[in-house]
Prior knowledge:
By secondary structure, chain A is an alpha+beta fold. Chain A contains 6 helices and 9 strands. The longest helix of chain A has 32 residues, at 112-143.
Amino acid sequence: MLFFDSIAVNVSEKDLYERLGYKVNTEISDKQKKIFSKYIKYGFELAQIKGAGLRLKINKKSKKTVEFENGLVVKSGLLASFLFKCNEALFIASVMAGPIIEKIKQMQGEDLTGAVLLDAFASEAVDNALNWIQNYFSKDLIREKKFLIPGRISCGYGDFSLKIQDDIYRAMNLKKIGISINKYRQLNPEKAVTAVSGIADISS
Amino acid sequence: MKAENIIKKRVLLLDGALGTNLYERGMPHNAVPEDWCLKNSKILESLQRDYVKAGSDVIYTATFGANRIKLNRTKNNVVLINRKLAQISRKAAGNRVLVAGDIGPTGRFIKPFGDLDFEDAVDLFKEQVKGLLLGGVDIFAIETMIDIQEARAALLAVRELSDKFTMVTMSYEKDGRTLNGTDPLSALITLQSLGADAVGSNCSRGPYEMTKILSGLKRYSKVPLVAKPNAGLPKIKEGRAVFDMTESNFARYAKDLVLEGVNIIGGCCGTKPAHIAALKKQLRYLKPKKVSPVSCSIISSARGYLDLNSSKDVIFIGEKINPTGKKLLQSEIRRYKFSRVKSLAKEQEYSGAKALDVNISLAGIDEKKAMLSAMSELSVSTNLPLAIDSSSTHVIEAALRFYPGRALVNSLTAEPKKMKELMPVIKKYGPMVIFLPVTAKGIPDNFQERKKVIDKNLKMLNSCGILKADIVIDPITLAVSCNMSSAVNTLKTIAYCKSKLNMSTVIGLSNISFGLPKRDIVNKTFLDMAKSRGLKLAILDPARINSSRPSRHAKDLLLGQDKNGIKFIKYYSKKEHRPVLVKADILNPKDNIGSAIIDADRDNIKDLINNALNSGISASSIMNEALIPAITKVGELFEKKAIFLPQLIASSETMKKAVSQITPVLKKDGFKGKSKALVIMATVEGDIHDIGKNIVSLILSNHGFEVIDLGKDVTAQSIIKAAREYQPDVVGLSALMTTTMVNMKRVIELAVSEGLNCKFLIGGAVVDEAYADSLGVNYAKDGIDAVKIINRIVV
């Protein structure tokens, strides 16, 4: 189990704008661009991204079930097919831990534009942090003649039920990086995400 | 033969990969390499002998992961494993080849970037170093580091136990930085100043990419550069990842690497003894560049650097992280909280500071604890290098040990006690240092005396290995209000340091104007005068200096031509502020208002409405002929994707401001506006996400709907209770999670069972048309869509 207290991710204006619906025909004046850039800079100022990664061996898998070494059993055809060639899984999580979340809440009453930009910044940053964590593990895996399969999936999609969030939360000890979970399996702070990737032998 | 001596004559040739070759020689994929090598020492020895035969000058021990964290063993066991593995390599190397004790990452990030304590990391690496020394290694190789702080911890561990030649190589990504964001030059500056004997890169990249990574480092490098690339980039062939660069192709890049100034070359993942043999052959014809001690006035952070010679302008060091006179900051520091420190750092960075001075001294606090906490926060929140500003040697030492870069120490004086305490610290950690010509007798009165102190101490500092390039001289800036010749003394000292010594200078700018009115003008004037004498750095508030102008009166004052500053004070106490005239464009007020809504000109919309009202246009005309058409146009532009979400919201907020400005006038005129419909909005129970719902509420209000917003995480009972009370035309529900969207169904079922006849509109990230259909309600994909649908179903 690895914890990361400060993940250095970059958030490009282009990616952020695209997240907010920017298309090729969208026109932004220089003045607006300047204002929006100021919010993005502010996002960097307020952001602190933490993360965690946990490798779990797969004990058994069938078409619809995956059993992990810690006793976690996930009934999901989506996850089983995603991990089809893998003998291990990598559970990853990231969270926006800085004062940005509080600031977004505060700003919604007085400056919704800024709040929306900061909100999108935080979403983009935690997503990028997951890429960063995957990249980090990839580097070590190559020395073990293993590799991280492309992509990742999160519970809440298809038959990979959000109910698993509780088990992931406990297995990864996400409390350590300041995340809590409620009865609806929502992570708090709200800019917190978990995902699963697969580890396979290069020879496979 | 010593590594240093070989490097003087030719390129030092390292070995190739161990891991990838050991797998090919039978090491199972799930084996712990160190354990397997101990049990199969003959195979390891045979591989290493192959490297010796291929021509390697150095072979690495098989101890890449032999640390307590990766092996999960006791301290004694770690020492033993390292010793035994080093002995195997020693045997394989014989007497003519050097053995490098290999130290790889622990796999954990170190504070401030991770959760592993820095001193714990140093201790962990020391266990490895002890074992490797007992096993007889000749040199050390700290390799594949992605965290500069971990590389520093490993280097300090070696340095505190041995003076053997030590190489440190980092692993860089496609973007030319380590995963943790460190660029090659920052790493070089940080590591060579901390005592690395060679610095460079290994793994991750092939030789072509590594040449680009190391390109340009030579001119800043006091130590040999190292390159240990992979055999190209891994490619997937028939489902297998392979490094397929041939030996000859691999060796071909040796020339480019040597031309970039690399003195030590080897191979990493995918390379074999044949690659090293090919390198050996190629290197026979290549003469490496000499390693010469370069002047290097550069400070660094974990993710950036500042070359003092990179700019002709004066470089700004932000002064604001200093609690003197700042109550809010004082109160935070007393509680060991540093959010204000972080925001001051960013604020100064945006105003043009290229480094930050950090002074945390405050009576009654543990300054060392506070400084380390501030360093920790700043190291992750800004890329700017830091100047450690403290009068306590203990605080400076602790900060230098922990800081993941090469800092600037503020400051060293010529006082014997200070010299005795601080010099060993500076020599060990290698920072740049600000030197003040202050002796045990105090500050010399005039330029000549300051010059004498500088000359005398420079010789002494140089003899201790602290070179001119490592020093910045502070000529001392005293208040001109206390001493009329103060500015002149400082300016003469700056000019002397620049023209005679060719050395950098720094001033604490605001001292000059203490006790005077219009301090910004005095500061700016003095800064310009100092710049013309060759000043390199100024510690100041960058935001204030950027908005200031120099003046002739201030110049006279600073040059001592205005006795007691009488003219200056008289001139500036007379000067009055002239009101700034705001031009009001009244040519086409309604068009201007419409444009302001579309362009989201939140700052000017109120003035534009007032101008229109003052020019006789009625409030109802502004509303119906300017505001409503404009916000409708905004909706159309959004639908066509000609504007995107932040612009839509900014326009909506501008509209909100306009409406709040004009509503009292409309009421006064007897205009009875009627809302198109009443809408209740809520995010359903369990869901804490409400930004989307807030956007929809804002857009609905701007389009003439009355909105009652119940907030987020609202129970079905509360929504129904509100619906019964307000009798809305529409209830809008939002949810972002699959686990909470089911609560939309509960609200609707409850409404049906209670006989409420209002209409429902649902939306949110996980909600779609099909789900709405299943509930028998309407669905809107965004705020503009919501306007259309409510217009259709209600109005």
